[in-house]
Amino acid sequence: MADQTDLVMFVLIARIPAEGIEDFRAYEAAVLPLLSEFNGHLERRLRNLNGTVEVHIVSFASEADFQNYRNDPRRMAPAGLLERSSATLELLPMANVS
């Protein structure tokens, strides 16, 4: 993986209605294992007690790796699960602060 200072980092905030948690988790189970194939790493994954909010800190070795992950057909295939979950997602590009 790239030097820590070269990483492309994101924070994903997912707000999931209680009735969508099962579909959201099924979607994650399908797409998160793909990260490593694109030089991506789930740095941290946090969830509130009732499962309706998740925060992921994700890094990629490059912007190209991130785009390749986003465009991979295997990541797009289970998109119906994400849609059915009715989760709202906020993806924030981030940078390390010294």
Polypeptide structure, described:
The chain is an alpha+beta fold and 98 residues long. The protein is built from 4 helices and 4 strands, in the order E-H-E-E-H-H-H-E. The chain has helices at residues 21-31, 63-71, 73-76, 79-85; strands spanning 8-15, 40-47, 53-60, 88-94. A 4-stranded antiparallel β-sheet has the order 2-3-1-4. A hairpin with a 5-residue loop joins strand 2 and strand 3 (53-60). Helix 1 runs antiparallel to helix 4 (79-85). The model has no long low-confidence stretch (mean pLDDT 94).
Nutshell version of this structure?
The protein is of the alpha+beta class.
Q: Which helices and strands occur, and which strands form pairs?
A:
Elements: E1 8-15, H1 21-31, E2 40-47, E3 53-60, H2 63-71, H3 73-76, H4 79-85, E4 88-94
Antiparallel strand pairs: 1-3, 1-4, 2-3
Give the class from helix and strand content and strand pairing: alpha+beta
| Low-pLDDT sequence parts | none
Taking all residues together, what is the mean pLDDT? 94
Number of DSSP-assigned strands: 4
Supply the number of helical segments. 4
Helix content: 25-40%
Strand order of the largest sheet: 2-3-1-4
Distance between the termini: 20 Å
Q: What gyration radius follows from the Cα positions, in whole Å? A: 14 Å
Q: Main β-sheet, in a few words?
A: 4 strands, antiparallel
SSE order in H/E notation? EHEEHHHE
Protein traits:
single chain, 98 residues, alpha+beta, globular
